[in-house]
Write a structure and sequence with these properties.
Tetracycline Repressor, domain 2
């Protein structure tokens, strides 16, 4: 029997809050059961197991992140869109560290194909990069550059990994400027073919 008041949506929302409080790696079914005042077994009528819960949390957080990015980049192109995209990404990662960590897990490709949020992420990201005149395979390379730069910076910043006196935000802005220059002068795949 399904416990009154517990739904998959409420369970995932509680997992998102817990992830931000204690870290994504510490989100577990026992902790969530305690939040709802039920036994662990009660949650299995809503999720198959911990991996199912974490995947649902990743999809939920990914949807929140892309909603924020989409609102930031709406009506913008080129450097203005890149700056808005980067800012929304960084703000989300720093405000919601546990949820952001969830967005980094590997998700089964079949689930990605069925996820409107993840399809939207690709559409918005690739759309922003097409304004730089990029096409495949350069688009994929550019996405990997942006993701690794944004992720690495956010992880280092949230861990206090930048010890120099220089303002962290000023360095972020320079990094985004450098990415814009790299995208604007991208070495096209066809440029390397003879």
């Amino acid at each position: 029997m399904v416990r009154a008041g517990i739904t998959v949506e409420r369970l995932v929302a509680a997992a998102a809050e817990l992830a931000d409080e204690v870290g994504f790696d510490h989100v577990g079914l026992s902790a969530l059961a305690r939040r709802f005042g039920v036994k662990d077994a009660s949650l299995y009528s809503h999720v198959r197991n911990l991996q199912d819960l974490r995947t649902r949390l990743a999809l939920h957080a990914g949807g929140e992140l892309i909603d924020r990015i989409a609102a930031a980049v709406a009506g913008r192109a080129g450097k203005e869109a890149l700056t808005a995209f980067a800012g929304a990404y960084r703000d989300y990662a720093l405000e919601h560290p546990g949820r952001y960590a969830a967005t980094q897990i590997r998700i089964d490709q079949a689930l990605i194909a069925d996820s409107p949020a993840l399809r939207r992420t690709a559409e918005i990201t690739y759309g922003m990069l097409r304004a730089y005149g990029l096409e495949e395979p350069d688009l994929t390379d550019a996405v990997r550059l942006l993701r690794s730069t944004f992720h690495g910076y956010c992880v280092l910043e949230s861990a206090g990994g930048f010890g120099a006196e220089r303002d962290v935000r000023a360095s972020w802005d320079k990094a985004v400027d450098a990415l814009h220059l790299a995208l604007a002068h991208w070495p096209r795949e066809t440029d390397n073919d003879d």
